[in-house]
Amino acid sequence: MPAEEVGRIFGDVGLGTFRLTLARPLERGEYLAVVDESKRAVLCQLDDVERRSDLNLEKANRLAHGDAVPVEETFFGRSVILGYREGPIVRVPQIPFRPGSPVYRADEPLIAQVLGLKSNGGSSAYLGLLRNHDLKVELDINALCQRHVSVLSKTGGGKSYLVGVLLEEFLKHKVTCVIIDPHGEYGSIRYRSEHAPREHARFGIDAQGFRDQVQEFSPDTNLNPEAKPLTFSLGHLDARELLLFMGITNVRGFVAPMKALLDRVAVDNPEYTVRDLIQAARHGEERSPLLEAIAERLEYVDETHLLAPRGTSLSELVSPGKMTIINLRGSAPDVQELIVTRIATSFFEQRKRGKIPPLFMVLEEAHNFCPQQGQALCSRILKTIASEGRKFGLGMCVVSQRPARVDKSVLSQCATQLILQVTNPLDVRAIAQSIEGLTDGMTEIIQGLPIGTCLVTGGGFQTPLFCEVRPRASRHGGESVKVVPAS
Ligand SMILES: Nc1ncnc2c1ncn2[C@@H]1O[C@H](COP(=O)(O)OP(=O)(O)OP(=O)(O)O)[C@@H](O)[C@H]1O
Ligand SMILES: [Mg+2]
Description:
This protein is an alpha/beta fold. It has helices at residues 57-64, 108-115, 141-147, 159-172, 197-203, 239-245, 255-268, 274-283, 289-304, 314-317, 333-352, 366-369, 379-388, 408-411, 425-434, 440-447, and strands at 5-10, 17-22, 31-35, 41-53, 73-86, 89-91, 102-105, 124-130, 136-140, 149-152, 176-181, 214-218, 228-229, 232-233, 307-308, 323-327, 359-363, 394-400, 416-419, 453-457, 465-469. 31% of the residues lie in helices and 24% in strands. Residues 153, 155-161, 401, 451-452, 469, 471, 476, 478-480 line the site of adenosine-5'-triphosphate. Magnesium ion binds at residues 159-160, 478.
């Protein structure tokens, strides 16, 4: 039985919560244990703590003047009942605890047993340690990939760092991953971390780079010299798709002349270039203001270097057991949307046919690619992957600093949520509404979480838990930029 008694149950006792006196103040979130009527140790969690005193205005004034004033304090709290484990199931006692029962500090074996903290053997992703404990929090990689994940926090909350941790684990387990990286942050995973070896030792992590398992593609290799060029096959695009690449979203009126232009050019030269199309639009027999408008937009497409007679093949992009970074740094938002649409559609189609290995796709800045309001070009395919991807071994990790602005139908498909500090009231509300079992206390804790601590919900755990994210083995690329130079 747990040894250290911390307080006693008092007042009216419910089946989900109870109040307790505390001999001294404990931290909110602390795990407690109570023995129920059937002599089972039941895991509970402190959800609120209060400190009452007899320090009235008059006494406080005397204290301020330096008088020795005796202050009487009492501590009490509210605890939620998490339950006891019966095989794979966590149950909650159906008879309320007896008032006056002692409440103990829970010991680690009970915490690990009830929360389900166990290694999933060969398919575990080591995320970090249970907050204030030395218990490892490991997520089942298969479950993550099959049922999708969301990583949410305010800006600078530590999302990309945490995703880096997940990716390191995936690479160790040879899971094929593709990262949509709008800011070019993830290439640094190639290199070993140079940070705080003491922290590494506490978490049992060795610094390590993953150079041999990482490849990077970008439409802009001048800005991103470590990347190989990312191009799409011009010949594989039909008139509508090409118009989208040209930024013409209202395609009506353009489709017929575009189709005629493509047919005309392809007859003589099946491996045509964008310049061939411009030439034909401007100097062909049929000239019109519409064709001139098409030529102008094609000039813009030509500058992006995105379309080539032979584009990057899917077999180059997806390499089994490796991580592919699609570095979109420097690309305009509409071009980024086009790329994501094209890539996500190919992944989905080719996974259906089993032509590429099962893979895990990370979508950074998801609010831009599948917004709740308005429509992005890629919204439809991302919603399809969110709802059907798991059947075909296409997992998704949705990352966003504005949870309230991400399409709800995408977010609701994420069975595992990793939540770091969130302060915006709309985002807090969006999260609270989308997570089962989130208590008021936890919702408050989320708003004050220190960097590096995340709330884990789902992921094979029956109750939400807080985890101190382990340090990165590799270098993190999203360091905040200091405006004042170091002196
Ligand atoms: N677990 C952690 N341990 C130590 N430092 C961390 C941890 N998580 C984040 N940081 C630090 O916090 C800063 C912000 O982290 P990160 O880049 O992951 O934020 P973000 O949520 O992705 O922000 P944004 O929304 O702006 O992309 C970085 O400087 C990073 O080094
Ligand atoms: Mg980030």
